[in-house]
Design goal:
The complex is a heterotrimer of chains A (385), B (75) and C (286). Chain B has two helices and four strands. Chain B is of the alpha+beta class and 75 residues long. Classes of the chains: A alpha/beta (385), B alpha+beta (75), C alpha/beta (286).
């Protein structure tokens, strides 16, 4: 369906990534956010707090991130599209409810504007060191989707995508920004509402009495009902059967957890988004994401000027990891170069998918600034040998 | 309903007219559910029903008849 | 079966009975009172949502035939906050235990009371963490033996009515599971009240609290409640703290009016934004 025009600020704007993310959420139909202040992410909800009362909706600043990350889920079951926004220390607190959203299949979006860690770390400076936390941070087996924008325009476009994926798969979607992308200001084009595709909630049409909250059909994603509609359904974070009732048997656990995993894994190739350049003749492929992809772009141009056969693969979905693409490439390329603002996270996934068929070179950086293109270039040169 | 009983004794103790006593019979979980010993005294006040933590007993007033406790039928 | 059914029956997921609560536990008794309050207040059950946290009382959500949410430990109140704000037509009840609401969820409890979110909170206080095996709770009376205070607890206990009154609740009452009619009436009263209502129900945990402290079984505890409870409506909440075996002050302590969160939010936004303010439409994103 098309976006509700009330939330769409159609036009050409000069926005930072945080503000563009907020506009993306509004365009996607988000009418509820719960937040807790934390640098460098707060601008997203500051703008939402100013904007949402003019389009009909609610922002509430909660007492902490534990509260914010579950308040938004209450709002989802009340019928809203909802999200929260945070950075590393708050993201750590939200892990509990990423697990709850995964288990209860609550469609929602968690925005993490990454800064340097661990702990309080570098509140005002960038990092990309929450990538594994986004995937594995809550306990137990589960799957999420994570997107990595590299510009304010993408902060707008991909926030809509994040909400759409959340609704399609009934899964929490991690929107993995970083401080630089969040605070850089660029041109952002917001199209008219009738050009924005919005995925509606998978709301049940079953009559009362026939609806089971976790009954699935072929596609493994159940239909949802909202509180107050008469279905009198039960939702729990305990292992549950199709009725939503707790069931502590290994059989029900196996069925449920495998479905939570496979509804994403089986669709991984369909979900995968990436940008590629010059991969046909590449011997070395630079794999990057977020702000680092823009530094990598410069390094790739420098390398190609030296006639090095370098290609670019920019990850837009980090999770599920686009391993099919890496596997295809590793059949004919010599090496992958993986710069990221951490001491090695997504590089492990590249290495795993390459499975020894191509070498993998990490270009680690502890965060606080972006890479120097020369450092990436150096790795490209080494990988080309 | 008798199968839900866990023999806590709340209904027996707090029945204002002392209609009930724990029986010597067992339910399938091994508890002694209450039985009616003074049916004529039941006022149908349903205090037993409000106390029963296991939703296993209740009282009601029959129209034009003596009040009844809802426990003794074994259903 | 006669035409007369147990009044609680229509409110239960009977396919989940018998429940997991121990013999002599009072939680089921509070559910009876809740059901009677629903009948008395003639509340529309389709508009009613019940939210629980984790623990023995947290299991209430799984047993009531309502839209019911069993959330994470301590977070029933913020979940309920989101539910209520997204759909203000819902009547939202939070039904949880003392440890869940006042320890891990303590921050949410005081802030929801401060904001005066329109929630009805039923706090079953059994003075202990029961589901996990009887550990010290913030409500455990000083000197009580628990599995994590094997030599007696040295900590003072929270006086929950005092806490929530100070934080801003508009309705505060305490009953024990002996006071079934009063409790049902209090719950019904809270339904007619807009704002943050808090009803504490002192309840036996014979398996873990009473047994370890040699206080008998559930029935002995009920007799203690009957004997040692004093009804004092309007009692200053600063004076209703509890001890191991002392007097229990019960009654309706606070009943006051102040605008609830959504009323305040709407007024503030309408005043500041004027014509630009857009009322929240019904959230149907399907």
């Amino acid at each position: 369906m098309k976006a509700d025009p009330r939330g769409v600020l159609t036009g050409v704007h000069f926005l930072d990534g945080d503000h563009a993310c907020c506009e993306g959420a509004l365009a996607a139909g988000a009418r509820f956010a719960a937040g807790y202040p934390i640098t460098p992410s707060t601008e997203v909800v500051e703008r939402f707090a100013a904007r949402v009362p003019t389009v009909g909706g609610t922002f509430i600043q909660m007492e902490d991130e534990l509260a914010a990350s579950i308040t938004l889920q209450g709002a989802v079951w009340g019928g809203a599209k909802a999200f929260t926004v945070t950075s590393g220390p708050g993201f750590s607190l939200m892990m509990e409810h990423i697990g709850y959203a995964a288990m209860t299949e609550t469609p929602c979006v968690f925005v993490d504007v990454q800064r340097g860690g661990p702990s309080t770390g570098l509140p005002t400076l960038p990092a990309q060191a929450d990538m594994m936390q986004a995937r594995w941070g809550s306990h137990g087996d589960y799957e999420i989707i994570a997107l990595c924008p590299n510009s304010p325009q993408e902060c707008f476009d991909l926030t809509i995508k994040a909400f759409n994926l959340a609704e399609e798969f009934r899964v929490p979607v991690m929107f993995m920004m970083d401080e630089v992308v969040g605070h850089m200001t660029e041109k952002v084009v917001i199209p008219p509402a009738d050009q924005i595709e919005v995925v509606p909630r998978r709301h049940t049409r079953k009559p009362l009495g026939e609806y089971l909250p976790y009954q699935t059909n072929g596609d493994m994603v159940p239909e949802i009902a909202h509180a107050g509609e008469g279905y009198k359904f039960h939702i729990t974070g305990l292992t549950h059967d199709e009725r939503g009732y707790p069931n502590m048997t290994p059989q029900v656990q196996d069925k449920l957890v495998r479905r939570l995993q496979n509804k994403i894994r089986n669709a991984a190739d369909r979900i995968a988004l990436y940008e590629e350049e010059n991969l046909q003749d590449a011997e070395v492929v630079v794999v990057s994401y977020g702000i680092t992809s823009r530094v990598a772009q410069r390094a790739i141009e420098m390398a190609r000027a030296k006639k090095l056969p370098v290609g670019k693969l920019r990850l837009i979905t980090a999770w599920p990891f686009p391993e099919t693409k890496i596997r295809e490439l590793s059949a004919y390329v010599k090496a992958f170069v993986v710069p990221e603002l951490n001491l090695g996270q997504m590089v492990h996934e590249v290495e795993r998918a390459a499975a020894g068929k191509a070498r993998t070179f990490a270009v680690p950086h502890a965060g606080g600034s972006v890479h120097h293109p020369e450092d990436i270039l150096k790795a490209i040169v080494e990988a080309s040998r | 309903m008798v199968e839900r009983c866990k023999a806590c004794g709340f209904c027996v103790e707090f029945c204002p007219t002392k209609v009930l006593a724990l029986s010597s019979a067992f339910n399938s979980k091994g508890y002694h559910p209450p039985h009616v010993v003074n049916p004529e005294k039941c006022s149908g006040c349903d205090l037993c029903g409000m106390y029963c933590p296991d939703f296993a007993i209740y009282g009601y007033k029959l129209p034009n008849a003596a009040p009844q406790k809802g426990v003794p039928d074994e259903g | 079966m006669s035409d007369f059914t147990n009044p609680v029956e229509p409110f239960l997921r009977t396919d989940r009975m018998p429940h997991i609560w121990c013999p002599g536990c009072g939680i089921g008794t509070t559910v009876n009172c809740f059901a009677r309050a629903l009948i008395e207040s003639k509340i529309d059950l389709e508009s009613l949502a019940l939210v629980s946290g984790i623990g023995c009382t947290g299991r209430v959500a799984g047993y009531v035939k309502l839209d019911s949410f069993h959330t994470t430990h301590g977070r029933a109140i913020p979940f309920a906050t989101g539910l209520k704000l997204a759909n203000p037509k819902l009547n939202v009840v939070v039904y949880s235990g003392d440890g869940d609401l006042s320890a891990i969820g303590g921050n949410h409890l005081i802030h929801a009371a401060r904001r005066n979110i329109d929630l009805k909170v039923i706090c079953v206080n059994n003075l202990i963490y029961a589901m996990t095996g009887g550990q010290t709770a913030p409500t455990t009376p000083s000197h009580a033996i628990t599995s994590t205070s094997p030599y007696g607890s040295c900590e003072p206990a929270f006086n929950l009515p005092h806490l929530v009154e100070a934080a801003g609740a508009v309705y505060v009452a305490r009953w024990t599971t002996f006071h079934v009619r009063q409790l049902a009436r209090s719950i019904a009263e809270a339904f007619n009240k807009k704002g943050f209502s808090f009803i504490e129900v002192i309840s036996p945990c014979p398996t873990l609290f009473q047994r370890r402290n040699k206080l008998g079984d559930g029935l002995d505890t009920m007799k203690y409640y009957k004997e040692k409870s004093k009804v004092k409506h309007g009692a200053p909440t600063s004076e209703v703290g509890m001890t191991m075996t002392g007097e229990i002050i019960v009654g309706k302590f606070v009943d006051r009016d102040r605008p609830d969160y959504q009323t305040m939010a709407r007024a503030q936004l309408a005043e500041s934004l004027g014509d630009r303010f857009v009322e929240q439409a019904e959230m149907v994103c399907s």
